[in-house]
Structures are given as structure tokens and as C-alpha cells.
Write a structure and sequence with these properties.
single chain; 627 residues; alpha+beta; Alpha-D-Glucose-1,6-Bisphosphate, Chain A, domain 3; 4 domains; seven-stranded antiparallel beta sheet; six-stranded mixed beta sheet; 19 helices; 42% helix; 19% strand
Length: 627
């Protein structure tokens, strides 16, 4: 079992085949999850003398068997368990605010035979890396003790079948309550306010806009936990048409990870709908099995075809939307002179290239928290809105905690996430949610220029972006989603699921591996630097490490990054970042991930990205003793 802050995971299918759809788990694995329940139960008791836990599963076939094994132990420990059945991860985490904590049985995007455990308290997210490490150590300790194994087997038998049946019988009511709470929480998150009047104003604006310009969402549920969530009803409440396929929970029709190769079903359905005259079907998504991630398909009206957005583009669009929305909320909540103030700011500051990191002079101290391999296009977007970018190690919990730290320092961090995976986290949510991603894009489309009573113009979100990024000539009143995409900073980035992004490394000591890599890289740099400068404009480099929520710049000893992320940031003659290579061993899979990011997408930059990733791979394999 891999024990990480993102979850404890392994293949639970009794056969050991990661693609097996069996519902059966082995006796050893049943004991394993009961030991996990015992550790989690003790942790909850440490936080509360009358503890209660919400437990749910995604739609994997082994989920019910794992749930029953864990519930028996938790109930035997006198912990009140509310069983939510199949429930999306964002939904159970929103619902967790009503309890002392949650246990969620899922392996996210991993193949169907995998499963695992995520857990947290009542703050809406998984526990942080430091706390997880303590629990993981205790779990391993108990797994090594025959006495603990015998104890937990005996403990599980103390839970009567009658008590267990009652927990399952109550699950219908639990699911209904969870759905209601999640719907309210989603409205708060999307609107960026808990003020009901202001929420209603936004959703009324959405409904009004889609009356004149109909909008439809296509979703390939792929049998995920979101099949039982609020998606269809919520979109329809907003006046948005919903076209769902593969809607039966647990009927997983194809590979789970929502990367381009698996978004083709959604794209095909969008093209079918368009061919039948459903021209409103312009956005689509496919969630992973636990429903906390969903990458995007859109209708390119210029090419007359459905296209899959890359993960980094999805995140970039979400960041663009939410930064613009934060500014829109702030400035149009002020006096009617706000638009004049903004116009003055653009004239005085953007033409001179000044940046005071004060969100267009409105007193906002905006920030974005991202993981280390997020493309540098985020810095370009953030700089346009005078927001700061903070980077942490890969792992949702790391980025959530980084954002919390920066908020305590006075920053407004509405959006955060892992650009390399596409999904965004929108505050106050502490987990990715495709609804938040989609509504970020919807807000970009529907919050358009509007004339005020005194004759001024409230700039829409896309217009704000065009002004902030110096692209106002691209703005037009009848802009489309394709127009928005074409305004993004252009980068060439390795996709996280590409074969060349995943290496099999023999070394288990990542610090030692990176130490060997450093020696090879420094020698190679001396050999290659003139060629790199001549061909790609690379003049210097900076090594950067990310460990947890800490980023260390100007690293002189690569081994100090340990199991964290290591980035080599390449700069031009003016010290401006123009490319990077990155590496890190996965915390949830037995692989080593690598990638490259290059500013621009011309043929030269496409070639540069390929050369950089090939160069990095060769040096790593040499450091690992494979070549």
C-alpha cells in the first residue's frame, strides 16, 4: 500500500489484477482496512470525546466490502457512523463540516481494481501531510504486530449485524442531507460569497444570459460517483441544458483518468449533438471515479469540431476567470466611478509596465497557490492581474495548506490547484470540483459588459482580462469560448499522462538519485549551454525544490529536495524564465514523473520541449544506472 497525503492506495481486487472488476477483497486486505479504521478511529477520539464520522465510497466495485469492514471497527469503537454510500469526493468533504471527520474510500483516477482511503476532519479537506505521516507510521506499526492484528479482528466482531443494518438503512437520509448541504456550499463557492442576495444575483444573471444565448453541458459520467450527485439538477436550475452519457453508477465504460485519450467519448457525444442541431452543447467534461476532477471538452466553432482542452489550459482558464471575478466583485461593489478608476489604472500602469501587486489598485492582495509543475503561463496570467503566485510540492493537501498559510498573511487566494492535473480548487472548498471549474468558465462567458444607470460600463470578465493582458484589440462583444482560449499565453507543456512523462526508476533513495543527477547535469550544462543559448535563447538556470508547502530557490544541492519536487528553471539573457524541466517520484503510484514547460508554441518551441524532456530522461536514467 502506498501511503501518501493524497490517500492510502493499493490494488484491492482479490485477484491482484488492477483491471479486475470483482467486488471481492482478500481476508488480508479486509484486516488491512480494519487496522486503518482502528488508527483513524483513535485519531478521531483524540479530537472529540463523542466522535462522529461520515463514511462514503466512490463507484468502484470493491468499495462496499471495504466500507463494511471499516464501519464494523469504527462502530465497535463507539464512533457514530453516517454512511453516505456512493458519493462524490467534493460532496462528502462539504458534508464533513457537520461531523468530526470523514473517511472516503476511493483510488481517484487509478484503474478500477485499485482502491484506497482518504480521511480528514471537518475542515472540508484531507488531513495535512505532517498529520498523515504520523498516522501512516502508526498504521505501519500496527500492521507489523500480530497482537494488533488479532485485536482488530476481535474488535470487528463486536459490531452486531443489527447495528450495521441500521447504518445502511439510514444511508438514504444521509445522502439526501449531504446533497442539500453540498448544493448550498457549491452556490457559496461559485458566487464567492455566503450572502444569499448576492448569490441569487449571480445565478439570476446566468439564467438571464442563457435565455438569449442557450448553453448546454455535455458530461461523460463514466459510471463515477458524480452519477448520484447534484450535477444534472444544478445545471438545469441555472437554465443550462445537461446532456449526460454513461450515467449508471459503477458502470465504468472506459479508463478512469480524465486525460485527453479518455475525453474522446465526451467529444464524440458533443459532435453528435451538434450534428442534430443542439448548438448549445459547447462545453463538456468527464469526471474521474471519485468526481473531484473533470477536464474539459469544448466546441470550436471555427473548426466545427469538439476539441479536448489540455489540463494546463483548463487550469489556466480557471485562474484567469476567478482572478477576473475577484476584481469584478471588488470594483463593482464600490461606487459607480469604479470603471473610470480601472480605466485610469490601465492607462497609467500597464503602458508603463508598472506593477504594484495590488490587484488593479483596488486594495486587493491577490494570490494563487499552485504545485511546482504547473505551467509558467500561470505567472503571466497572475502578473496581468497583479497577483502573486506561490508554489508548493505536488499533492492537493500541500496546495490547500499553502493557500491557508498565505491567507493568514493577508492574501486573497480564491483559486488554487495543480495545473498539471487540470482541476482547480476554489475557496472555500478545499478539494477539486468539476462544478467549480465549469462555473469558472461559465462566468467568463456570461458576465459580460453591462451599462450602469449613470451611463458607465461595467467590464465583463473577459474584457477585464483583455485589458489587463494588453490584448484589448482582441475583445469583441460577441466573443466565444474559442476566442477566450486563443487569448491565453502560449506554452508547450508535457502532458502528465503521456508515456514519456512517466519513468520507471530503480532507486528508492530519491535524494541520492538527485545528487547523481546533479553531477551529470552540471557536466552536461557545460557541454550544451552554447547550443542551448544559440538555438533556444537559454542563458542560465536556477534549481528549485518544493517540499510540502515550502519552495526553496537557488538550490545548490539537488539532494535537498529529497522526495519532493526538483525543477531546473531556464532563463534568457535578461533573467526572464523561458522554460523548465521538473521531476518527482509519485506519492500514489510506483513511478517517477518528469515534464518540461516552454514559453511559446511555434515549431521551434515544440521541438525544444521534446529535446528538454529527452535530455532530462537520459540524465535521470544514467543517474539511476540504467544506461
Amino acid at each position: 500500500m502506498i501511503l501518501s497525503a493524497s490517500g492510502w492506495r493499493k490494488v484491492f481486487a482479490a485477484s491482484g489484477n488492477e483491471n479486475d472488476t470483482t467486488t471481492e477483497i482478500s481476508d488480508d486486505d479486509r484486516t488491512l482496512v480494519q487496522l486503518a479504521a482502528d488508527v483513524i478511529g483513535d485519531y478521531i477520539f483524540y479530537k472529540s470525546t463523542t466522535p462522529s464520522i461520515i463514511l462514503g465510497i466512490d463507484s468502484r466495485p470493491t468499495g462496499p466490502a471495504i466500507a463494511e469492514a471499516m464501519i464494523r471497527v469504527l462502530m465497535a469503537k463507539k464512533i457514530a457512523v453516517s454512511y453516505a454510500g456512493i458519493i462524490a469526493a467534493p460532496e462528502i468533504m462539504a458534508y464533513s463540516h457537520t461531523s468530526d471527520g470523514f473517511v472516503y474510500i476511493s483510488a481517484s483516477h487509478n484503474p478500477i481494481g485499485h482502491n484506497g482511503i482518504k480521511f480528514g476532519l471537518n475542515d472540508g479537506g484531507v488531513i495535512n501531510g505532517k498529520e498523515n505521516a504520523k498516522l501512516a507510521a502508526e498504521f505501519e506499526k500496527r500492521c507489523r504486530s500480530n497482537g494488533e492484528i488479532d485485536y482488530v479482528k476481535t474488535l470487528a466482531k463486536k459490531c452486531s449485524d443489527i447495528d450495521l443494518d441500521w447504518v445502511f438503512a439510514e444511508s438514504v437520509a444521509v445522502m439526501r442531507e449531504a446533497s442539500s448541504i453540498y448544493r448550498s456550499f457549491a452556490k457559496t463557492t461559485i458566487a464567492g460569497t455566503d450572502n444569499i442576495t448576492n448569490q441569487n444575483k449571480l445565478f439570476a444573471q446566468i439564467r438571464q444570459n442563457v435565455r438569449t444565448t442557450p448553453l448546454g453541458i455535455v458530461c461523460d459520467m463514466n459510471g463515477s460517483a458524480r452519477t448520484l450527485s447534484i450535477d444534472s439538477a444544478f445545471f438545469k436550475e441555472c437554465g443550462i441544458n445537461f446532456y449526460g452519457i454513461n450515467n449508471l453508477p459503477g458502470k465504468i465504460e472506459h479508463a478512469i483518468i480524465p486525460e485527453p485519450e479518455n475525453l474522446v467519448w465526451c467529444a464524440d457525444e458533443m459532435e453528435r449533438l451538434q450534428s442534430e442541431g443542439k448548438t448549445d452543447a459547447i462545453l463538456g467534461y468527464m469526471p474521474d471515479c471519485d468526481g473531484d476532477r473533470g477536464n474539459i471538452v469544448y466546441w470550436n466553432e471555427k473548426l466545427k469540431k469538439a476539441e479536448v482542452l489540455k489540463a494546463q489550459e483548463v487550469f489556466a482558464l480557471s485562474v484567469l476567470a476567478e482572478l477576473a471575478y475577484s476584481i469584478h466583485q471588488e470594483k463593482y461593489g464600490m461606487s459607480n466611478s469604479s470603471s473610470t478608476k480601472i480605466a485610469s489604472f490601465f492607462k497609467e500602469n500597464h503602458k508603463s509596465g508598472q506593477s504594484d501587486k495590488n490587484a488593479l489598485g483596488l486594495g486587493l492582495k491577490l494570490g494563487v497557490a499552485v504545485n511546482c509543475p504547473t505551467s509558467m503561463r500561470i505567472e503571466e496570467i497572475a502578473n496581468a492581474f497583479q497577483a502573486e503566485v506561490f508554489r508548493g510540492e505536488v499533492g492537493e493537501a500541500n496546495i490547500v495548506n499553502l493557500a491557508r498559510e498565505k491567507r493568514s498573511e493577508g492574501y486573497t487566494i480564491r483559486i488554487l490547484g495543480e495545473g498539471s492535473n487540470g482541476g482547480n480548487i476554489t475557496h472555500p472548498a478545499a478539494v477539486r470540483d468539476p462544478l467549480n471549474t465549469l462555473f469558472a468558465l461559465i462566468k467568463l462567458l456570461v458576465i459580460r459588459d453591462a451599462e450602469t444607470e449613470d451611463g458607465n460600463t461595467e467590464l465583463g470578465l473577459y474584457h477585464l482580462w483583455c485589458k489587463a493582458s494588453g490584448q484589448e484589440e482582441k475583445y469583441k462583444n460577441d466573443f466565444t469560448f474559442t476566442d477566450i482560449i486563443e487569448s491565453l499565453p502560449q506554452y508547450t507543456t508535457t502532458g502528465v499522462s503521456e508515456k514519456r512523462a512517466i519513468l520507471q526508476i530503480n532507486s528508492t533513495d530519491h535524494a541520492q538519485l538527485k545528487d547523481k543527477f546533479q553531477k551529470i547535469f552540471e557536466n552536461q550544462w557545460e557541454v550544451q549551454k552554447e547550443k542551448l543559448h544559440e538555438k533556444y535563447g537559454i542563458a542560465s538556470y536556477e534549481a528549485i525544490a518544493t517540499n510540502g508547502i515550502k519552495e526553496t530557490r537557488n538550490l545548490t544541492d539537488f539532494s535537498e529536495s529529497g522526495k519532493g519536487g526538483l525543477k531546473i528553471l531556464f532563463k534568457d539573457e535578461n533573467k526572464n524564465p523561458i522554460a523548465f524541466i521538473w521531476m518527482r517520484g509519485s506519492g500514489t503510484e510506483p513511478v517517477f514523473r518528469v515534464m518540461a514547460d516552454v514559453r511559446g508554441n511555434s515549431q521551434n518551441e515544440v521541438e525544444e520541449e521534446k529535446k528538454l524532456i529527452e535530455w532530462e530522461t537520459k540524465m535521470l536514467l544514467k543517474a539511476d544506472g540504467q544506461i
